């Protein structure tokens, strides 16, 4: 069974400490545990980086090894054409995930490059939305959606 990749971008390693009024107090370690539980028997590659290069390398790995991707690209959502190009090569389902509702925030957060290729977008559910995204991704994989 191919794994799902849950990829997290810059500053998400600071979850629980960073702007709790926006992102809550849940840590990334707690999110990872929830995702693994939600995935059941499906293997999970759960990763976080502050590096655009590393994030793109992990998308390349998922192209070869993964069944689906949940990606919270954080600031790279709004800046990275390179990340968009990498994600466009992935043939399985992609969920773009954001803890906050980016559309209720400043205008700079309203234009996502990742949305141009994502199968679906989830935003505003808080950190507790991650396991919901895992279950949704499993359904998309079973339905062979892209």
Short description:
By secondary structure, the protein is an alpha/beta fold. Helix content is 36%, strand content 16%.
Defining traits:
3-dehydroquinate dehydratase; 5 helices; 146 residues; amino-acid biosynthesis; EC 4.2.1.10; DHquinase_II; Rossmann fold
Describe this structure in words.
With 146 residues, the chain is α/β, with parallel strands linked by helices. The chain has a single domain (4-142), classed as Dehydroquinase, class II (Rossmann fold, 3-Layer(aba) Sandwich). The chain contains 5 helices and 5 strands; from the N terminus they run βααβαβαββα. The protein has helices spanning 20-23, 28-39, 52-65, 81-88, 129-142; strands at 4-8, 44-48, 68-72, 94-98, 120-123. A 5-stranded parallel beta sheet has the order 2-1-3-4-5, with helices on both faces. α2 (28-39) runs parallel beside α5 and α3 packs parallel to α4. The longest helix is centred in the middle third of the chain and has 14 residues, at 52-65. The chain is globular and about 40 Å long. The mean pLDDT is 94.
Number of strands: 5
The structural class is alpha/beta
- Sheet bearing the most strands, described? 5 strands, parallel
Helix content estimate: 25-40%
Radius of gyration: 14 Å
CATH topology: Rossmann fold
Q: Give the SSE string.
A: EHHEHEHEEH
Strand content: 15-25%
Query: How far is it from the N-terminal to the C-terminal residue, by CA?
Result: 18 Å
Determine and state the CATH class: Alpha Beta
Apparent shape: globular
Integer count of domains: 1
Mean pLDDT: 94
Q: Give the spatial strand order of the biggest sheet.
A: 2-1-3-4-5
Total number of helices: 5
């Amino acid at each position: 069974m191919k794994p799902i990749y849950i990829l997290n971008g810059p500053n998400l390693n600071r979850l629980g400490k960073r702007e709790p009024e926006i992102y809550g107090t849940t840590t990334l370690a707690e999110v990872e545990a929830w995702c693994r539980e939600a995935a059941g028997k499906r293997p999970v590659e759960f990763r976080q980086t502050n590096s655009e290069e590393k994030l793109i390398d992990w998308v390349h790995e998922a192209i070869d090894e993964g069944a689906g991707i949940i990606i919270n690209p954080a600031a790279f959502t709004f800046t990275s054409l390179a990340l968009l190009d990498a994600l466009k090569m992935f043939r399985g389902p992609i969920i773009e995930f954001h803890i906050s509702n980016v559309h209720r925030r400043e205008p700079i957060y309203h234009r996502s490059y990742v949305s141009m290729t994502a199968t679906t977008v989830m935003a505003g559910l808080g950190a507790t939305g991650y396991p919901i995204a895992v279950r949704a991704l499993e359904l998309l994989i079973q339905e062979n959606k892209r």
